[in-house]
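ok so for the tutorial part 2 we go from a plain amino acid sequence to predicted structure tokens. step 1 is just haveing the sequence, like this:
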Amino acid sequence: MALRALWLLKHEPGAGGTVLFSRHYPTVEIRAENFNGSTHVPVPSDSAFLKALLFELRLVDDDIFVEHRDTCTRINHSLVYSVRTEGGDLWPVLAFQKSGLIYACLPLVEESLEPQPPLLTVSGLSQGLALLLGIVDYISPSRKNEAEMNAKIGQLRNLLIQACPLGTPLNTNIRSLNSSFDDIQETPTDENQPAWRSNTYKGKPQVNVCITEKVKCMQYDKRDVVDMWQVYGAVNCKCDIEGSAPNVTLSLNLPTNAPPLQDVVVHHCVTSVDPAMLMSSSAEPLDDSVFNGPYKFPFIPPSESFNLCYYTSQVPVPPILGRYQLTEEGSQFKITVNLKLHESIKNSFEYCEARIPFFNRGPIAQLEYKVSYGQLDLSRDKSLLVWIIDAVSGFRTEVP
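step 2 — the prediction. this is what the tokens look like for a chain of 400 residues:
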């Protein structure tokens, strides 16, 4: 879903039209050439496009009959047009009029244009329409004030850097970006500012860190079969710090007797790191490949939230031990689930859920259950049981 170009045009009856704003995306144009092949039609200059679109919309020369435009066999029921240019018919051009202004864009079509694919298969049309409507919502309130409207049009280029970077619409609510347009710079003012730091922050410095760790475990409840588990995590950061290239260092301290981190992968903004930390591949304490810390990450943070690093860990035991039994009797299923917190794990859960999915079995028609803690919920599509364990204080013992 991408746009090759975007225009904001003005039409005055009897006076022709003018191009108020345009934005071309060369990288998307290269993709269009590859996708469309021999059927590719290049985007014309703004003046040529203005003339061709006004003609196609019957805003000029409407008193002259032109067969390819005015024939009864061609009745357009949508906002999508085929605009005739010197290079060929430019399609699909999405355009509409609002309060004397014309909003238009050219979505990318990821296939040959002959024959023309169905409009429903062009995913960029809906995104392009949403972006144009966002621009309408941003421009329209100032339509009666010429100076205010011109000021807003002058801000569009900076706003589109956020809303539609490299031709891909990400945020169609242009009005919500209005308060931050002053912080957007097309080129860094400081030659030391890295490319991934798109703007600068002004205000109270603060750093937010969130560590997300997941455990995948397969437990067999058999003495002759070894249980298996994997632990992996990510450290997410959001740094609001003034300066074009601020230096931040984050240190991670592991709990006492905790196994070292392994397979550490860092974000490209990290300026330096101990190679031994990246090459650590064993949890054996006496192994030479073990990195014993400290885990320090000096970096120049991006403007947005990002994952500073990913890692795995060989914990000696899974945090929760479980037993699951399922018996089938005709169209009825009997399920028994027992969970127990491992004795070496501290009971510091904020919440705990057990999810029991039923794939390819159809919806659950009737449910009878008994739980010792919490409550059992049925998902909206009736294919998933969610056991919400509220009383984690009693999680020390086995929970049936």
